[in-house]
Amino acid sequence: MTSHRSRQRLVKKLKSEGISNRLILDVISNTPRHLFVENVLSARAYDNTALPIGSGQTISQPLVVAMMTEMLIRKEGFPRKVLEIGTGCGYQTAILAQLADQVYTIERIRALAQPAMNRLYRLKYRNIQFHHGDGRLGWKEHGPYDGIIVTAGAAQVPDELVTQLATDGRLVMPVGPSGQQSLRLFIRHQEGLQSYSGCNVEFVPLLEGSE
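Below the sequence we write its predicted structure tokens.
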């Protein structure tokens, strides 16, 4: 269930679905997804499916993780400083940490935030800073960010996140009402945001506050 063969089967699936960036595929292949789910679900860790992680949240489908990560790439390469809204179990965080120089990640649910931080430290990711709080507000003191990834859906991008995005920076987020969300890429230019639509997705809602 954690074998090289299982991971390669997942990578093959991602490639067949259109993921082409070799570096992202290698990072996904080398990241132990079974350590980010409960033991009873570890046999399904390398299936291309979302899995529950508690508190009404899920670890995203690997294909969605790969797509969102690939959408952050610019002509000059991967963003150096990335803000992640929604740490969850830390799997997407781990993927980003292997591609960016620095990752800032926010989780609103304390019951998820602390275990994710402990897990990522045990796995020796040292370029991540953690914050428990309201992801809609971002993390202003460390901005602007070259890339922002939001792992929860909303009708529109929160203004606070837009202001924390650097010029030519990229923001990836599911946008739309429940049942009608699409993955969107926003690029901030001097004159405003340019938007690109991706595939249909279904994410948990981006909620205010923390718990």
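Residues 53-201 form a domain with the Rossmann fold fold (CATH 3.40.50.150).
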